[in-house]
Write a structure and sequence with these properties.
It is built from 2 helices and 6 strands. It is of the alpha+beta class. The protein has one domain. Strands 1-2-3-4 form a 4-stranded mixed β-sheet, with helices on one face. A two-stranded antiparallel sheet has the order 5-6.
Length: 94
Amino acid sequence: MARIIPDDIEDALKHDTGHRAEWATLEHLRDELSDEYTVYHAVHWANVKASRSVYGEIDFIVANRYGKLLAIEQKDTQVFTRLARKARFFRTGM
């Protein structure tokens, strides 16, 4: 089971119903990844460049014990892509 930061997922699941797909993804990552992984949820970031600042939030950062990172920005919508003349639809949620 992966470590989740912040670790108040159970409390958040009870009170925040607006991000159900995101919570389902977080639970899935927690339950399906081994303890070699840490999942950071709702990570805020900022950068100052040429006297202006940019900031935002990324839904998940998955880190392994070797320092490799995977950033995931989840969208709760239907996505349509065209790859090599093929169309694919991706379902939301788990």
